Amino acid sequence: MQGQIVRFALYFFMSLRIIKAKSIFNGEKFIQENVLVIKDNRIVDLFFSESNENITELYDGILVPGFVNAHCHLELSYLHHQFEHYQELLGFIRQMFQKRNLFNEKEIISQAEYWDKKMYENGIVAVGDIVNTIHTLNIKVQSPIHYINFIEVFGLLADKSELIFHKSTELQTTFLNHHLSAFLAAHAPYSLSNPLWYLLLNYYKNNTQQITSSLHFLESSDEKNLLTNRDSLMRTFFEKEFNLKQYELTQISYNFETYFQQLVKHSKTTILVHSTFWKGEYQNIINSFKNKIFFCLCPNANLLIEQKLPDVDYISSYSDNICLGTDSLASNFNLSIVDEMNVLLTNFPQLSIEKVLKWGTSNGAKALNLNTKIGYIKMNCTLPLNVIEIKGRKIIHKGMIK
Ligand SMILES: [Zn+2]
Predict the structure, then answer these.
(1) Lesser CB count within 10 Å: N end or C end of the chain?
(2) Across the strands, what pairs with 272?
(3) CATH 3.30.565.10: does it fit domain 1-65+376-402?
(4) What distance in angstroms lies between residue 328's CA and the mean position of ligand 1's atoms?
(5) Cα–ligand 1 centroid distance for 327 (angstroms)
(6) How many percent of the chain have pLDDT more than 70?
């Protein structure tokens, strides 16, 4: 007790922020401590106190780390309320082909600007963001959110692979030159020609263990059919759209297992986005690299595209490495990790609140390799943090501590 009084007096004398809340979730579990001391934006002490004396900020709620959105496409925010939902992945891709060029740059940038701010208001402090253009560049330079940019590599036309790869590396360099994190990432198993996969994997091999990677993964049953060379509407669509010879997609599906193994092997972490239809496929690879593979669930997007949620019991019995994403506003109504957590809590009564909070905070930070500063309430981690309330099985975001 005496020690605590001295501690308080010292912090008070140093004019540090002494923050107390009803309870604290530290990114993994609820902890005993209920007081935080902040110096230069960093947590420098944590302890329990019954008294409110000398507390500089008192919160009537639960303190949790800043939320991590491990999968987003900020540049597609202009597609909010533009798509017809429940059209399955192929219908979604078709609408993307039709609508993505209908908007001008000013509209695209102003929507991205609005939603960057909105994400921050929603308590999100870090985002794994898919990038195809420079539209979000200046927004990210100014934003309080920490962005990990995944420059999306895709293209089924083999003779264009050099050009596509060159453009991707140019875009990456532009982001790096603005002091933003940027990695090249494959779009999906089915959307890169064989030569493009080779070019991308060379980049992974030359930067081995330095790359945070991301891949849309088994988002529909049709994609699964394509990868196993069964009849698939996606295959027919791509072959027609890109005038591909039948064997080309067969070759890609045949080789994907090798590509996937190489990609995971040479990445620091790999985020598998959606995995809605994953039922143990490529399990040998996933088993061999279990610690660095993260399953990123985007439940609201899955409901709006496929009307199906991933098998959370199956994935979580298999791996603790689950994180959460919003995907883009083409397939979501909001960019909020709290909304993603709540939809999981509503649909899976067996899931604990502690577990989904972990997925939305520390696991996302680990997936993006930001866990030394973000995703936890522990010594040396930084503000902002969130204040939440729990009503029944619903998480309510009350605000941020900046
Ligand atoms: Zn996505």
Answers:
(1) N
(2) 215, 295
(3) no
(4) 6
(5) 5
(6) 99
